[in-house]
Write a structure and sequence with these properties.
The chain has 15 helices and four strands. The protein has about 280 residues and is α+β, with helices and mostly antiparallel strands.
């Protein structure tokens, strides 16, 4: 996966934090105080709100390391699942995954936001980013429908105009695709390893491992829709069951690596070769 260097522009930029924050007092504080002042006040905030997500949220906002900040946002979502801060925290995590090219993980976080907080003010942004994830993986027809839904359901949101712009891009991409000669289009859709060869071996590539089978199923359905031969396996590890998402079945480790590298380039998702 890509190492995030400019992610501070997305995760920590005040424009993103200020636009959708829930607690107006905290919002005003973040707007009026510089980082150094906020750092100095973090201790007193922790003392004042010991059983609140506010200190964690402030700490995450101040954290310069993206991975560390995401860990803090994750803590908010887990410790305070019903708090509006959890919705904002999951949106930040989704942006992190999107920036790293992990579009499945981003959509899973966004599904949590939409499922748990259907009336939140950040829903238009969550829907927009979810549709962008589909575009990034080439699912233009589904993305098109989601952008149209944004235009219909969020007519007063600034994301309505953004959705219109994305629809223009989709139309352009479809036109480009339709202008490609038929023989070339067929060649581009052929997978590197035929299905019968994928079913003949002892190796596979693993793209996910989840404690919740529903998350593994979501990932399986997404990549099955894209035409991959996806299966779910399970194993017992550290006193719990893990559900593993596998793609392909290869005779040698070398073939699995070649397929895995091609998959990584196309989908922006890391993998590991496992022997079954």
């Amino acid at each position: 996966m890509k190492k995030i260097s400019l992610f501070a522009l997305i995760l920590f930029c005040p424009a993103f934090v200020f636009a959708q924050d829930v607690d107006k007092n905290l919002l005003v504080s973040l707007e009026k105080n510089g980082r150094e002042n906020l750092k100095n006040r973090l201790g007193s905030v922790m003392e004042k709100y010991p059983n609140s997500p506010i200190p964690l949220y402030l700490e995450a906002y101040l954290e310069q390391d993206a991975d560390r900040a995401v860990s803090l946002y994750r803590s908010i979502a887990q410790k305070y699942p019903s708090s509006p801060y959890a919705a904002n925290a999951r949106l930040k995590i989704a942006k992190y995954y999107y920036a790293k090219g992990s579009y499945i993980s981003a959509r899973q976080e966004l599904d949590q936001v939409k499922g748990r907080f259907p009336n939140s003010e950040i829903i238009p942004e969550a829907n927009f980013l979810a549709a962008r994830c589909l575009m990034a993986t080439g699912n233009y027809s589904i993305a098109e429908e989601e952008f149209k839904n944004i235009i219909r359901k969020h007519s007063y949101s600034p994301y309505k105009s953004d959705a219109r712009e994305e629809l223009k891009l989709i139309i352009k991409k479809f036109k480009q695709k339709n202008n490609v000669p038929e023989t070339r289009r067929r060649a581009e859709t052929i997978t590197e390893f035929p299905a019968d060869e994928q079913r003949a071996g002892r190796f596979t590539i693993q793209i996910g491992a989840y404690g919740d089978k529903r998350n593994a199923t979501k990932q399986k359905e997404f990549y099955s829709y894209k035409g991959y031969n996806v299966t779910i396996s399970s194993k017992y590890s550290n006193n719990r069951i893990l559900y593993l998402v596998w793609i392909g079945d290869f005779a040698t480790r070398e073939k699995a690596v070649v397929f895995g590298e091609e998959f990584k380039i196309k989908n922006g998702l890391s993998y590991q070769v496992v022997q079954k």
